[in-house]
């Protein structure tokens, strides 16, 4: 893709790539990757293999979370100079739990056209197949790795009425489900979309208690890449949590936090972990 002439900036194309099945690379994505002057890639080896699968090579520039701030301006300078470039990540749509935000912001601030070439994303693929309400949802990305921060984050989300979508890795799927169960309650409907578009694709649905039991019982269900989708709090859950937090705040003035939370949970019917650390 050549520049229109001196002084005409090139375009930055944000290109989605497959999340597993290589046949999901769209014809337009392929054409864009073939014709840009260079491709900014999260992992150049990974992207080189993708291009090799389709039988071509392009110059690659490494752009990952550790160097993005530093090289974004250099990439923008190339764009201003007339080069057209693509940004890809290792899988799915760049900027969705992947690098690229700083580059896109810098390019737009410099007046460079940024054009998406949409395609796969694990978030949307999961949401489309799990059968939970999808008209309004909140994408939470990865939960914090540290257990205390993860639990706090889940407690904050306990009363959220929109469907919640989380990314999770095989190292933490068991712990994450246990923490979700504690924060949202055993009965909250949820689903786990694993290895989407790949050989061992599985979509499990059920209550959080059922899902945790299935994942605990079957080692294979802890392998691969996961999207966890949790139905939002119903009006009933929301009201119970609000009442539980009110009771907890009152009891916490006179009792140790763990006793206050236990009693508030019993009185309100809300999950104990949804109350802890709230209002006191
Ligand atoms: N940008 C990507 C997207 O648009 O989906 C996501 C990148 S993020 C670093 C990687 C996470 O996405 C994985 O840990 C997993 O939670 C989810 N993911 C990616 N591919 C997946 C797949 N084939 N099946 C299920 N989840 C997947």
TrEMBL record:
It is found in: Cytoplasm. It is an enzyme of class 2 (transferase). Its EC number is 2.1.1.198. It comes from the Bacteria. PROSITE patterns: RSMI. CDD domains: RsmI (cd11648). Residues 241-276 form the RsmI HTH domain. Keywords: Cytoplasm, Methyltransferase, rRNA processing, S-adenosyl-L-methionine, Transferase. InterPro entries: 4pyrrol_Mease, 4pyrrol_Methylase_sf, 4pyrrole_Mease_sub1, 4pyrrole_Mease_sub2, rRNA_ssu_MeTfrase_I, RsmI_HTH, SAM_MeTrfase_RsmI_CS. One of its GO terms (molecular function) is rRNA (cytosine-2'-O-)-methyltransferase activity. Residues 11-211 form the Tetrapyrrole methylase domain. GO terms for cellular component: cytoplasm. It catalyses: cytidine(1402) in 16S rRNA + S-adenosyl-L-methionine = 2'-O-methylcytidine(1402) in 16S rRNA + S-adenosyl-L-homocysteine + H(+). Gene3D superfamilies: Cobalt-precorrin-4 Transmethylase, Domain 1, Methyltransferase, Cobalt-precorrin-4 Transmethylase, Domain 2. HAMAP family: 16SrRNA_methyltr_I (MF_01877). Catalyzes the 2'-O-methylation of the ribose of cytidine 1402 (C1402) in 16S rRNA. Belongs to the methyltransferase superfamily. RsmI family. This is Ribosomal RNA small subunit methyltransferase I. It comes from Pseudoxanthomonas helianthi.
């Amino acid at each position: 893709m050549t520049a229109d002439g001196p002084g005409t900036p090139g375009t930055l194309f944000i290109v989605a790539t497959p999340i597993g099945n290589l046949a999901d690379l769209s014809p337009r994505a392929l054409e864009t990757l073939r014709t840009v002057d260079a491709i900014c890639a999260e992992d150049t080896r990974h992207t080189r293999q993708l291009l090799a699968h389709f039988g071509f090579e392009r110059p690659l520039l490494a752009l990952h979370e550790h160097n993005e701030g530093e090289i974004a301006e250099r990439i923008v300078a190339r764009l201003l100079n007339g080069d057209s470039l693509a940004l890809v990540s290792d899988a799915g749509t760049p900027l969705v739990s992947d690098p690229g935000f700083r580059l896109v912001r810098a390019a737009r601030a410099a007046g460079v056209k940024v054009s998406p070439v949409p395609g796969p994303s694990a978030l949307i693929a999961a949401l489309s197949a799990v059968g939970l309400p999808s008209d309004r949802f909140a994408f939470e990305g990865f939960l914090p790795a540290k257990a205390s921060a993860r639990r706090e984050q889940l407690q904050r989300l306990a009363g959220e009425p929109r469907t919640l979508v989380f990314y999770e890795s095989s190292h933490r799927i068991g712990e994450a489900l246990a923490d979700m169960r504690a924060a949202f309650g055993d009965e909250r409907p949820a689903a786990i979309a694993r290895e989407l578009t790949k050989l061992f694709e599985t979509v499990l649905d059920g209550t959080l208690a059922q899902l945790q039991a299935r994942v605990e019982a079957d080692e294979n269900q802890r392998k691969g890449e996961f999207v966890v989708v949790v139905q939002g709090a119903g009006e009933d859950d929301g009201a119970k949590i609000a009442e539980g937090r009110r009771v907890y705040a009152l009891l916490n003035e006179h009792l140790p936090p763990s006793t206050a939370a236990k009693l508030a949970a019993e009185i309100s019917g809300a999950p104990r972990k949804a109350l802890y650390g709230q209002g006191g």
